[in-house]
Amino acid sequence: MTRGTYNTRQKRELLGFLQERSMQHFSVDEVVFELRDRGEKIGRSTVYRYLEQLAEQGNVRKYPGVQGVTQYQHVENAERCDGHFHMMCSHCGNLMHVDCALMQTVSEHLDARHGFRLDPRQTILVGVCDKCRAADGEAVEHGADCDTGCHHCL
User: Fold this and answer.
1) HEC per residue, 65-110
2) In three state form, how does the secondary structure of 17-31 look?
3) Of 39, 57, 74, which marks where a domain is finished?
4) Strand 85-89 vs strand 124-127: parallel, antiparallel, or unpaired?
5) For residue range 1-23, what is the model confidence (pLDDT) as tens digits?
């Protein structure tokens, strides 16, 4: 067995934590603090190495987060996440899925007219979410809600 392939209690705890929160994203430090709050003694470098390993395997996605802090998100079904784009609020850091027919149309247009194929897995639209705009740009804690009023969204 090569180094890094051991199935330790720490790795099981980390994977369980990510699976419980599969639609949320976390920095390495946030994972460490959450696991320590649960009573798990785990080092930052262990969390980082395992998240990177899971990202290489396709079980975790890496996103450039607010202020340059990398965010990690567990993906149960990678194919489901491969087919849509993402939006990130530059104030609160919330990462939202965009299942929107208009984005697919934009992607097809860029490919057909400009010879440029977007990679939905790596394309993140950055802006300010409606909740942060309503709070005068202050970062607020909230979940990712799709705008069901958008006639383009599926």
Assistant:
1) CHHHCEEEEECCCHHHHHCCEEEEECCCCCEEEECEHHHHHHHHHH
2) HHHHCCCCEECHHHH
3) 74
4) parallel
5) 445 456 688 888 898 998 888 76
The encoded tokens of residue 54 equal 């899971």
Residue 126 dihedral angles phi and psi, to the nearest 5°: -110, 135
- Sign, CA dihedral 60-62-47-90, equals negative
- In 3D, which of 75, 115, 117 has the Cα closest to residue 97? 75
| All residues at 6 or more sequence positions from 7 whose CB lies less than 8 Å from its CB, including other chains | none
Which pair of structure tokens corresponds to residue 141? 């804690």
CATH code for the domain of 56:
1.10.10.10
Range of the domain at 35: 9-74
* SS3 assignment, position 152: coil
Cβ 72 vs Cβ 28: under 8 Å: yes
Does the global pTM surpass 0.85? no
Cα(8)–Cα(120) distance, rounded to whole angstroms? 33
Residue with tokens 């419980």, as numbered in its chain:
20
